[in-house]
């Protein structure tokens, strides 16, 4: 399921092709480098906080991966234990934009 979301995000980036990397044409965000330098468990915590701060009900990230940049912004794809899936985009000044397909809250 996560692979389908990654494919969907790739389709949203008209400038991406298999042989092209946006990193070669844009200057990396210093916050991206700081996140990349974190141990994997702290990267997960950072993405979890972004999802929760976005108002989503994720309780635990079960998998995440870094995606190719979109419009020069760093992007991660995450899936939570409730099967909610999220695209987390790093904006300038360390602000995350989170969008996704959250699961409905249990009544």
Architecture overview:
- The chain is an alpha+beta fold.
- Helix content is 30%, strand content 30%.
- It has three helices and four strands, in the order αααββββ.
- It has helices spanning 2-11, 30-37, 40-53, and strands spanning 61-70, 73-80, 85-91, 95-101.
- It has a four-stranded antiparallel sheet.
- Strand 3 (85-91) and strand 4 form a beta hairpin.
- The protein starts with a helix and ends in a 6-residue tail after the last strand.
Question: What is the approximate shape?
Answer: globular
N- to C-terminal distance: 25 Å
The SS-based structural class is alpha+beta
Portion in strands: 25-35%
Outline the low-pLDDT stretches.
14-24
Element-by-element helix/strand order: HHHEEEE
Radius of gyration: 14 Å
The amount of helix comes to 25-40%
Mean pLDDT: 81
* Sheet having the most strands: 4 strands, antiparallel
Number of helices: 3
Query: Can you list the strand order of the major beta sheet?
Result: 1-2-3-4
Q: Tell me the total number of β-strands.
A: 4
Short description:
This protein has 107 residues and is α+β, with helices and mostly antiparallel strands. It has helices at 2-11, 30-37, 40-53, and strands at residues 61-70, 73-80, 85-91, 95-101.
């Amino acid at each position: 399921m996560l692979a389908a979301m990654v494919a969907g995000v790739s389709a949203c980036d008209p400038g991406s092709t298999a042989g092209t990397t946006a990193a070669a044409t844009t200057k990396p965000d210093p916050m991206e480098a700081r996140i990349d330098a974190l141990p994997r468990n702290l990267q997960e915590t950072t993405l979890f906080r972004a999802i929760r701060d976005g108002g989503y009900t994720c309780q635990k990230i079960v998998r995440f991966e870094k995606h190719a940049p979109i419009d020069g912004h760093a992007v991660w794809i995450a899936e939570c234990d409730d099967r909610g899936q999220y695209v987390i985009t790093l904006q300038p000044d360390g602000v995350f934009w989170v969008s996704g397909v959250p699961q409905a809250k249990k009544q």
